[in-house]
Design a protein that fits this description.
Number of domains: 2
Shape: elongated
CATH class of the largest domain: Alpha Beta
Protein name: Helix-hairpin-helix domain-containing protein
Largest sheet: 6 strands, antiparallel
Structural class: alpha+beta
Length: 172
């Protein structure tokens, strides 16, 4: 079953994401003050998505409902129990990309095509997921890695303990 912790990890893996919680039990995730994902106390995930993405969620999840501001569609609402972790990661990414400023979204999108061993001086041995995660966060050099803690690195979706060990060895 998918949880708030998984939503939190997915959302916070993108640059400039901030988590907000209010007294009514809503946990929201924003990028430059624009909400892209949230979860209510009754475990409904709200994702701010463009119409084609929202329509796809609505078509694949019978329990999903359209999310609108007045008459304007702005995304979807779906019970967290009805979406698996992999789907959640995908839709949170799509929501973040739709709400992030264009230059920041382009930086993250560029991470999709990052090839291990071809980004700055990052070691090839960290693998494709870690290379993409670091590139998406704008990190392309070991000097930038040195400024991050292991906890910050591990919080990036795609960077695991092995990649952190390899990066620290390369810095040594």
């Amino acid at each position: 079953m998918t949880t708030l912790a998984q939503l939190r990890k997915a959302a916070l893996s993108y640059p400039e994401t901030v988590e907000h919680a209010d007294d009514s039990g809503i946990v929201a995730f924003t990028v430059r003050d624009k909400r892209f994902a949230s979860m209510s106390k009754d475990s409904l995930v709200e994702l701010r998505l463009p119409a084609p993405d929202a329509n796809e969620v609505l078509a694949t999840h019978p329990s999903a409902q359209p999310l609108a501001r007045g008459a304007t569609p702005i995304g979807v609402r779906v019970p967290i129990r009805d979406i698996n972790g992999q789907q959640l990661n995908h839709w949170v990414r799509r929501a973040w990309l739709s709400q992030a400023p264009k230059p920041l979204a382009a930086q993250v999108a560029a991470g999709n095509s990052a090839t291990p061993g071809e980004v700055g001086d990052l070691p090839k041995a960290i693998g494709a997921p870690a290379t993409r995660a670091l590139t998406s966060a704008g990190i392309t050099t070991l000097a930038q890695v040195a400024a991050l803690t292991d906890t910050e690195l591990l919080a990036m979706h795609g960077v695991g303990p092995r990649a952190v060990r390899i990066l620290r060895e390369a810095l040594a």
